[in-house]
Design brief:
about 300 residues; twelve-stranded mixed sheet; 12 strands
Length: about 300
């Protein structure tokens, strides 16, 4: 049986479903659907030079890679390559072929430093290190059962603050964009990045098929969004907090906890059964919030980096 690597075909449903199936099997803590895979490929900014690769064996997609440039970074020459193989199809060469194809592509674009997320498991870490990658920071995946009838109560809404949903900003999402741009700038990361293009943000994030505007809760004060908890859902009971943040001038008032708790209650009422989120291991304030909300760490990823010769 021969394994081949090729580009994902966005107009072939079997490719999209195969990609989502592999990612869900390898990373059950992140929501993936065929529509989301198609959307990500279609709406990545051109400067990212983004590609989705698949490893195929006898017509079946068994491995995936997402490859591109960190185009928002002020430092040129930085790329990313995230490879995942279906757990039932490891040790068949798919991962090695995907890494080789990704590295050759990025080197051809002038990348000199590559970043990859790797599950914190001995075989995965050994694979990355054999290919010349060294470990750096890490992040946790967290899970909470929403079937559990006990959820922490929604905290009292402070005077001067109003809770809304992202759906209330359908006609003009720019205020939400401005809040996300501010909070993203403070996210822990190996690569400095920013959210600066409103049109790109609208296409890539606001129109994302998994974004649930009714479950995304926004705290408004002084006439503008000042905190939010962004919710993704997959229509199969899965709910994921894509981001929770507060504007700098309003931090320390419990508004992130308020927004996230309210979103969790809305998610359970909507029939969601599992809640997922993720945190950098050094983001102690957010980890503390999630612990109070009943989340437990279910897996850890390690960021690996390789310098190209």
């Amino acid at each position: 049986m021969t394994v081949i690597v090729r580009d994902l075909r966005p107009d072939v449903l079997a490719d999209l479903e195969g990609f989502a199936r592999v990612r869900h099997a390898a990373l059950p803590y992140i929501l993936f659907t065929a529509d989301a895979v198609r959307h990500n490929l279609a709406h990545m900014p051109a400067a990212a030079r983004f590609r989705s690769l698949v490893a195929e064996e006898d017509g079946e997609v068994i491995g995936t890679a997402q490859v591109g440039l960190a185009h928002e970074s002020a430092e040129p020459g930085q790329g990313f390559v995230n490879v995942y193989v279906h757990p039932d199809h490891v040790r068949r060469g798919a991962g090695r072929l995907l890494v080789r194809a990704a590295e050759e592509y990025l080197a051809g674009l002038g990348a000199v430093r590559l970043y990859a997320w790797v599950l914190d498991e001995p075989a995965n870490r050994a694979f990355a290190e054999r290919h010349g990658y060294r470990s750096s920071r890490s992040a946790h995946f967290l899970r909470r059962d929403l079937v559990d009838p006990v959820l922490p109560p929604v905290p009292p809404v402070p005077p001067g603050v109003e809770l809304r949903t992202a759906a209330d900003f359908t006609d003009d999402p720019r205020p939400v964009f401005e809040l996300e741009a501010e909070t993203m700038a403070d996210e822990p990361s190996d690569v400095d990045s920013s959210v600066s293009e409103y049109a790109n943000w609208t296409d890539q994030y606001w129109k994302h098929p998994l974004l649930d505007k009714d479950l995304t809760v926004v705290a408004v004060a002084e006439g503008r969004p000042v905190a939010f908890s962004v919710a993704y859902t997959d229509g199969r009971g899965g709910y994921c907090t894509a981001m929770t943040g507060t504007a700098r001038a309003f931090r320390g008032r419990g508004l992130a906890t308020l927004a996230k708790t309210a979103s969790l209650h809305r998610a359970r009422a909507a029939g969601c059964t599992q809640a997922f989120t993720g945190n950098d291991t050094g983001n102690e304030p957010m980890l503390a919030i999630n612990k109070r909300l009943g989340y437990d760490i279910c897996a850890t990823e390690v960021r690996y980096v390789r310098e190209l010769g």
